[in-house]
Amino acid sequence: MTIKNKLRAGIGFLFTLALICCGMSIYFLNQLSSDAGAILKDNYKSVQYVQNVLSTIDSHPGKLTPEQIKVIDKNMALQDRNVTEVGERQFTDSARLTFEKLKEAGNDELQERQLSLRFRQHLYNVMRVNMDAISRKNDIANATSKRGSLLVAFLGAFLFLVAFSFAVNFPGYIANPIKELTARIKEVSNKNYHQQIHFESNDEFGELGEAFNNMTRKLDEFENSNLASILFEKRRIETIINSMQDAIIGLDEKQVIIFANQVACNLIGMKASQLNGEYAPDIALENDLMRKLLVNDQAKLRIFADNHEGFYSRESLSVSSKDKVIGKVIILKNITEYQQLDEAKTNFIATISHELKTPISSIKMSLKLLEDERIGDVNPEQRQLISNIDDDTRRLLLITGELLDMAQVETGKLQLNFGSTHPQNIVDYAVKAIKFIADQKHVEIKVKCDESLPKVHADLDKTTWVLINLLSNAIKYSHEKSTVELVVKKHKNDEIEFSVTDHGKGIEDQYLPRLFERYFKVPNTTSEQGGTGLGLAIAKDFIEAQAGKISVDSEIGSGSTFYFTLKRAIAAA
Ligand code: ADP
Fold it and tell me: What's the pLDDT tens digit per position in 329-340?
């Protein structure tokens, strides 16, 4: 049965019960009224007639007057037609008979009194019979009323119980399935798709339950098929990552290892099962490579694994989703081959520049001899050619020198001769060496170096070389007749800072970070100005090898300032 019909049946049932109750009440009220009516109609009237007769007799003692007789006749006739009780007929007839005799009685007073007495007697009997009937019928009416009240009370109590149980159970009948459905829907929203509802009824709730079960079944199937495809994709990505030559390690935002491919496992020396799900800093406590990967921000790592030494470049990528960092991927690229090629290149450059130095020096010697008048006269054109060759030889010597320095740095063969030097010494050597070029361009070098400055812990030659290089660049990129400032001052507590400022064309911001890279030259630098692009790279290596720092500030159109710092010498040194 549908809920609609159940509701109809329930309300109809209650309505029927209410109707029955009303019907019963009306029936008993009717019965009561008919009982009372019977008393009024039959017996009360008889009593009334008899009383009328008696009062008429008593109104005029003695012989009956014609008026009395008329009234008594009338009432006796009415009583005659109103006989209802057993025995009443007999008393009524006797009364009538006696009354007839009384009417005919002559002037015999005694007889008249006797007849009148008998007449009264019969009338009293009629009255008694009716009074008895009234009393009896009253009892019957009382009994009817009691029975009616009792029955109506029973029916009312029964109706109350039925209505009460209906009121208690019916809301639950509607609300319970809705409550259960709500709870299941909440579970479904938490992705718990194994939900099934079993409504036993065949009504709309039964259909609803069936529809809900179908829905969760479909969702479950969908979830499983989705899961299967996600798992498939995961396996595919894992296979791709595992087949890569680079070591790849994935960490979540809490530094828990999510995956590590085979190459990474080999390098770390642990199995994937030992790594996955572990907190990376915990692994780092006992694993050097993991410690380097987490702590060290070195771009190049030397790793010894599988009895081989290899070089790896380290790259760390943050993984973000919706502007929130959800983890990072560390990639170790095997660059051993490039490293070996690079070393070969460096060795080659070192050998070549070393080998070139001797013949270039001998060319320079020969040029010196050619300039000597004792060897013979040279005409002005030849002198110009000799001067050009001399310039080029000087440049060649500078380039081979720089290449050699760089090769030394790259092969780790850089030798530093540390000593305790006053900054003024470094400044004097450098300014002296660069004076000729500065004068040629009419550039004034303004030096500010306080004599009270403490000594520095440095390699005099290398630091002078760096300062000459910076001054040489500053002059090169300055306009004619301008100034270059060389300032030396205290920086922090234990450092001395050297700065070289020019007022040349300046360097664009975008090139500043690359300025100290090997072979880097700012685009559009004329070949006349530019050299090998190694000067600043070597300067950086020299300064960093002495635990100092080198940096640059520049503004297009205003000029540039190059800074480097050196450690202050310890007092005893
Ligand atoms: P180079 O031997 O070519 O001068 P450097 O390493 O000394 O090589 O300089 C690298 C590049 O930086 C130069 O090619 C030049 O473009 C730029 N540079 C260096 N110093 C200055 C400066 N003071 N003003 C403008 N540009 C400069």
Answer: 999 998 988 888
Q: Is 502 in the pocket of ligand 1 (CB under 6 A)?
A: yes
The domain in which residue 567 lies consists of 415-572
d(CA 401, CA 393): 12
Separation of CA 521 and ligand 1 centre (Å): 6
Residue after which a domain boundary falls, among 288, 304, 334 = 334
| Rounded Cα–Cα distance for residues 364 and 333 (Å) | 47
Closest residue by Cα to atom 8, ligand 1, is 533
* % the chain with pLDDT above 90: 34
DSSP string of 95-123?
HHHHHHHHHH--S-HHHHHHHHHHHHHHH
pLDDT in tens, 413-470: 778 889 999 999 999 999 999 998 999 999 999 999 998 999 999 999 899 999 999 9
Q: Estimate the crossing angle of helix 3-38 against helix 109-189, to 10 degrees.
A: 170
Q: What is the mean pLDDT of residues 552-563?
A: 96
Q: What is the CATH number of the domain that holds 256?
A: 3.30.450.20
**pLDDT given at position 296:** 59
Within 10 A of 323 (CB to CB), how many other CB atoms are there? 5
Domain boundary among the residues 292, 318, 334 is at 334
Q: How far is the CA of 534 from the centre of ligand 1 (A)?
A: 9
Same structural domain, 293 and 425 = no
